[in-house]
Hints:
Blueprint: E1 14-17, H1 22-30, E2 38-42, H2 45-51, E3 57-59, H3 65-77, E4 84-87, H4 102-129, E5 139-143, H5 158-176, E6 182-188, H6 209-221, E7 226-229, H7 231-242, H8 245-259
Helix pairs in contact: 1-6, 4-5
The protein binds NADP nicotinamide-adenine-dinucleotide phosphate.
Amino acid sequence: xxxxxxxxxxxxxxxxxxxxxxxxxxxxxxxxxxxxxxxxxxxxxxxxxxxxxxxxxxxxxxxxxxxxxxxxxxxxxxxxxxxxxxxxxxxxxxxxxxxxxxxxxxxxxxxxxxxxxxxxxxxxxxxxxxxxxxxxxxxxxxxxxxxxxxxxxxxxxxxxxxxxxxxxxxxxxxxxxxxxxxxxxxxxxxxxxxxxxxxxxxxxxxxxxxxxxxxxxxxxxxxxxxxxxxxxxxxxxxxxxxxxxxxxxxxxxxxxxxxx
Length: 260
Ligand SMILES: NC(=O)c1ccc[n+]([C@@H]2O[C@H](COP(=O)([O-])OP(=O)(O)OC[C@H]3O[C@@H](n4cnc5c(N)ncnc54)[C@H](OP(=O)(O)O)[C@@H]3O)[C@@H](O)[C@H]2O)c1
């Protein structure tokens, strides 16, 4: 077992970042029972307002460092000792290196990657410094993607940010283990959300956000490091990523052709 299994969130204080739609929304809804021990964050204040209680929601743009400073100040004022984080926020645009937009690539990298360092540092430093405060192993759950397994055509900017998240989770897992801080990496295949609505191509084995959140909670119950689903799809991609490049490029070119 990699992590301390989470059978119940009853004694936990949970932060869900990216809770206004899709996978993060489903996770946050399932944890609403925690009342004031749940914090939900995203940019769209109106959606948070319509779906979550006032004490729970904190609208914030994770790419705005000043706003993130205020965000942590608010959490400090609430006297909340967050011990579990679901990091679900990300943006995506289908894009190749041929029809490349520098502006878009910069935005994707900023939200999906650069913006994760400050909150990750801030929260894990508290976990390290105030270890005795926490009854449970603090646990950080990264929602990454199978797009991080191997360079896929059409996933430029987004794919690299997810490879980087996988890398962060792998190294952080080992570094934090001696301090009883748990790290999980979630790699979903296609999930039917606002994000995938942008795809014009066929998405095999696509699942609902409800199914995705159930898989995540089940994986946490089993103490897994990597939670990946649906297996029919993720195991194929994992196998492909082990192939020699000659084969990987052939398969990718075929897929690209099919989707053009
Ligand atoms: N859908 C899939 O097929 C799929 C597959 C693999 C991995 N994933 C990953 O799963 C996670 C959730 O994605 P999803 O599919 O559920 O998409 P989604 O419905 O678009 O959710 C993305 C969430 O991120 C938030 N967000 C984006 N930019 C933000 C910012 N600057 N500041 C704060 N919050 C921000 C969005 O809220 P606001 O717009 O209100 O800020 C939204 O709540 C992402 O990490 C995604 O990469 C998705």
